[in-house]
Amino acid sequence: VAEGRFTASTFFSEASDYIPPKYCQYTSSVLILCLCPFRPVLYVERCQRHRWRCAEVTFACPDEALCQLWISSIREQLAATTSRPKHLLVYINPYGGKRKGKHIYELKVAPLFAQAGIRTHVIVTDYANHARDHLKTQAELKKFDGVVCVGGDGMFSEIIHGLIWRTQADNGRNLNSPEETLLPCSLRIGIIPAGSTDCICFATVGTNDPVTSALHIIVGDSQSMDVCSVHHNNTFLRYSVSLLGYGFYGDVLTDSERKRWMGPARYDLSGVKMFLTHHYYEGSVSYLPARDIIGTPRDPGRCHSGDMEWRTIRGKFLAINAASMSCACPRSPKGLSPAAHLADGTTDLILVRKCSRFDFLRHLLRHTSKDDQFDLNFVEVHRVRRFCFTPRHCQSDSDLELDLRENGKRQIFSQICRDHPACGCTPAYSSWNCDGEILTHTAIDVRVHCQLIKLFARGIEEPTVFEDLTNPCAI
Q1: Active-site residue (options: 63, 133, 153, 307)
Q2: Residue 154 pLDDT > 80
Q3: How many CB atoms lie within 10 A of CB 243?
């Protein structure tokens, strides 16, 4: 019924007016009132690896009227809890992942919603961006307490694009202006993982388990979340909540799109291929350092203040990544930026300069170990509120002329090779990987909007919460 340890003493303190202690008996794990008839009470039990499960405890009472009083009291308290949703709009992607989204929802999630008394309006999507378009134009949002997506990160991206667009349009905001202050969305979003990649669910809950996510929705958890808007020449492109990656991760996504027939295995193959090709890209990154925040990407326990002046870095990069969350996943439990915050209005800008294949491999392997992945001389990380990237071929004529003077004829022939990639030299530019979607432009302006959306989640709980599993923890 409420969060906390479920013990006999807690129950007696609340039920002493009704039940004499002599009628009560309890074990070390579950309190039971030993008489009949009985009625089960469902609660949430924490399990290992951040998983939650629905459990039940049975109360027995000699007086049916008193039993009904208990039931009425519990239902009144639940009804008075405003954080718990009562009516949800559910979108199911039947094609994502292993095409089991509809089956997962009907078998594992719908029964839990029914037991919790949650009404649902379910829409099974028919085509790409079906959910986005429906949210933008047709959905009667005032009827619902939240929106649930059953699918992967792509489905979640559809939901946030539709919900954010609808919120801003209803309030007259200009989405094409990177200077516009966007209004937070009022409806919370739930994620039932059922896709090829469920990075966002894993990084906000700690596991890709549909039952756990459903229970977070039922108990009414709420976790604010930052969203990055991506613009090109004052034109809106996309929103991002997890990873913006140029260079290595952009190339991996671009190559994997040609291998969709392989399923999730395509990411592994493309990753190996792009590692071996070892492309680097020239350009400049300008960023606005975060100010008055707690912690840095290297040390979340200390506070380093920046200033409000733009800073610019030019060079040759194997990868330019912006992580608005840890981007943790089962293969990389720490993620790209372990200390990234979900709702502080910043993103962690990670620059990996040109280095040897061996050094780059060291950097990649540290995503799966406990070593500091930023403690390498070719890697630098900055916590920023906004940044812009300009690839070298988009720089001004004066910048190009300066580069030519400095590098001479070698630079001229190098540029010719990049314009003709058949020779095997490094191509002129990469693509941006925006939460698993390829952006159509390379020169971008990225701004972080603090706590623009809310999820039915509470962030990854500390391991100490799960240490004592001999007694269930009721929520």
Answers
A1: 153
A2: yes
A3: 27
For residue 76, pLDDT beyond 80: yes
CA distance 363 to 352: 9
Under 8 Å between Cβ of 388 and 279: no
d(Cα 125, Cα 339) in Å, to the nearest integer?
Answer: 36
Taking residue 31's Cβ as centre, other Cβ atoms within 10 Å add up to 19
CATH superfamily name and code, 87-222? Probable inorganic polyphosphate/atp-NAD kinase; domain 1 (3.40.50.10330)
Q: Strand 243-247 vs strand 311-323: parallel, antiparallel, or unpaired?
A: antiparallel
Those residues with Cβ within 8 angstroms of residue 170's Cβ, 6 or more apart along the chain or in another chain: none
> Three-state SS for 207?
coil
**How are beta strands 311-323 and 119-124 bridged, if at all?**
unpaired
Phi, psi (degrees; rounded to nearest 5) at 116? -85, 0
Active site residue 372: no
* Cα-Cα-Cα-Cα dihedral sign, residues 420, 422, 428, 433: positive
Q: In the chain, where are the structural domains located?
A: 9-80, 87-222, 235-297+309-395+428-451
pLDDT tens profile 415-445: 444 444 444 556 788 999 999 899 989 999 9
Evaluate whether 87-222 and 235-297+309-395+428-451 have a shared fold. no
Contact 360, 318 (CB under 8 A): yes
Taken in order 260, 263, 264, 266, the sign of the CA dihedral is: negative
What's the CATH class of domain 235-297+309-395+428-451? mainly beta
Residue whose token pair is 């924490």: 46
pLDDT digits (tens, 9 = 90+) for 204-260: 999 999 999 999 999 999 999 999 999 999 999 999 999 999 999 999 999 998 887
